[in-house]
């Protein structure tokens, strides 16, 4: 189901409380199962406040503009080149306040659907054959943090956007592409768990808590690619001393906070060089470099190409 506007909040909360037990969606559309259905909300609004919605696994992102999502008392701004995840049974608050329309493309992955797909992805084949139709449910607690949109993610989103062009939604194709999205998210989660495993703590629960704190600082870096970073602010965001923060960050991500931040700026510069006609000087200013020479030096150090050469190479 792809909606072009947010459903009425009071109606939605009532349906969630009822677990969609009458199997009726917006405009009385019949649903296949109980529980929150799979739905994409692609709308343009300047203002919206949707508080304390207990949703399924949800991917929050914007095709244009910035929104803000709050989960478990923590609020995160979601820029265009990132997405944010919340989990099943986790209450979220979505806020939009802008002078220009913000175009959302928020994906809520149906409860029964996600259980079935994750069960198939996480259960060995011989076990599935033995269990038959009586599959055990499987859930994953994704990290509530910003994730950068890579090319694979963009392809999945474009494939879902393409479904809007058809007068009637092809359910099989929709579920195939939602399955691809879940598979992608599972891959991202496994990558994060590898980073958690690098942290030097005896207890797994301690490593998970340390990584959770580091992810707060990571979101801060992602949101400030066009300005200076401050080590005191970063370590305070993670509730760690500066010494411990620097050591643990490098162990988790393989780079210092400054190196990681420079990598983010480089990725953003590459995107602008590929997809816009902005002069190199304007890109440098947009990303907070002192001048275009500073950007050129970083490009040459990392890619052995200058920005103008990179732009010509990717045309």
- Count of the separate structural domains: 3
CATH fold topology of the largest domain: Jelly Rolls
Q: Which architecture of the largest domain per CATH? A: Sandwich
What's the mean pLDDT score?
A: 85
Q: Tally the beta strands.
A: 11
What is the helical fraction, as a range of percent?
Answer: 40-55%
Encode the helix/strand succession as letters.
EHEEEEEEEEEHHEHHHHHHHHH
Question: How far apart are the first and last residues' alpha carbons, in Å?
Answer: 36 Å
Largest sheet strand order: 1-2-10-4-8-11
- Specify the CATH homologous superfamily of the largest domain: Regulatory protein AraC
DSSP summary: helix tally: 12
- Give the amount of beta strand, in percent: 15-25%
Supply the helix-strand structural class: alpha+beta
Characterization of this structure:
- With about 325 residues, the protein is of the alpha+beta class.
- About 50% of the residues lie in helices and about 20% in strands.
- It has three domains: about 180 residues, Regulatory protein AraC (Jelly Rolls); about 55 residues; about 55 residues, Homeodomain-like (Arc Repressor Mutant, subunit A), CATH 1.10.10.60.
- A hairpin with a 2-residue loop joins strand 6 and strand 7.
- The longest helix is centred in the middle third of the chain and has 27 residues.
- The chain is globular and about 60 Å long.
- The chain starts with a strand and ends with a helix.
- About 5% of the residues have low confidence.
